[in-house]
Amino acid sequence: MSIVAIVGRPNVGKSTLFNRLVGMRKAIVNDSAGTTRDRHYGTTDWCGREFSVIDTGGYAMGGEDIFEAEIRKQVVLAIEEADVILFLVEVSTGITDLDMVMADLLRRSSKKVILVVNKIDNNDQIYSSHEFYALGLGDPYCISAMSGSGTGEVMDAVIAALPEDAGAEQADDLPKFAVIGRPNVGKSSLTNALLDTERNIVTPVAGTTRDSILSRYNKFGMDFYLIDTAGLRKKAKVTEDLEFYSVLRSIRSIESSDVCILMLDATAGIEAQDLNIFNLVVRNKKGCVIVVNKWDLIEKESNTMKEFAEAIRRRIAPFSDVPIVFTSVPNKQRILDVLQTAMRVYYSRIRKIPTSALNEYLLPIIEETPPPSTKGKYIRIKYVTQLASPTPSFAFFVNLPQYIKEGYRRFLENKIRERWDFEGVPIQIFFRQK
Hints:
Family: Belongs to the TRAFAC class TrmE-Era-EngA-EngB-Septin-like GTPase superfamily. EngA (Der) GTPase family.
Number of helices: 12
Pfam family, one: KH_dom-like
Radius of gyration: 26 Å
Number of strands: 15
Function: GTPase that plays an essential role in the late steps of ribosome biogenesis.
Strand order of the largest sheet: 2-3-1-4-5-6
Organism: Alistipes hominis
Subunit structure: Associates with the 50S ribosomal subunit.
Helix content: 25-40%
Largest sheet: 6 strands, mixed
């Protein structure tokens, strides 16, 4: 699809306009400058034409924000990638030095630029917008991103400027893999290494990533969406509103994903917050791959990796049938194994087992090891089938389902896992009245 990038200096309303164009609150909006850092993608359509929209961080120079240089790099990448650029300015401040710098940068690019003056709420402000002709980028379009006023005319101009699509590719049904974990465990570094590009800003500062950033991966016969998320800290430690919204976006990414890649810091081991995040994945019935990053920093002996994996499985029990991959992202050590393992978990999650195969395998095992009788009642399981649900769920039809204990449920789950590969996938077992 064609791509439209929204650029401008900080706090002119780029994320507000982005959210309005894509029709949902995908980007975090806040009054403080520098809220957006990474490039943020979404899709929209107008008059039957679908295209991608990129939200960028505010282009700034000479400030105290340590992310400025990285944000500028992301803006330049967005400009290079886009077919049409929406240059957003603010009517109340007039033309600033940063606007002039950005206008100069855009004039030197070969891209079609549409000048958009934001935060116009009355006729007097429309008259004030005429000073932006001095930027040399043509007629300004007057809008209010907050209320939506004037955005229709901007969309008409965008459609007129877009090149002909080579044919939009439908990819909504692709798997979604969310990279999750505590702050500063290497989530953005892993995403950049896999995509082989500086897709997300990486710094040693915890909390660098704020929005959940979605990218498409299409290499080595694999095609899926990769979602980089903000780090999840304990609720008591989240004091800023921005981090609160970042955490919400990360949780939504877990809820909308198929497989979660949970990253741990090898130097810290598995901590209580890692277990909280893992339990969140299990509660949402998502596939899970545990990635132990920074493995190059660990002093190793002959069984170090095996002992580390066993220690993790003890902590995450009873659901310990989860693949564990040890990586060093800067050295690109085993990072492709992460994707191959995630794909295997995804296919396990959507696996459907024929009812005949289930009964042929499980009924003799149940007959040999029946559920313990309770209160003199003999419990009989006559039939089992897999339910038509998005995640592996099995229904056992029983004469007295209320008397089956949790231990026997685990026994049946283990037998299913022994026969079929459901590694990394939570299994639900239901007992129903025959």
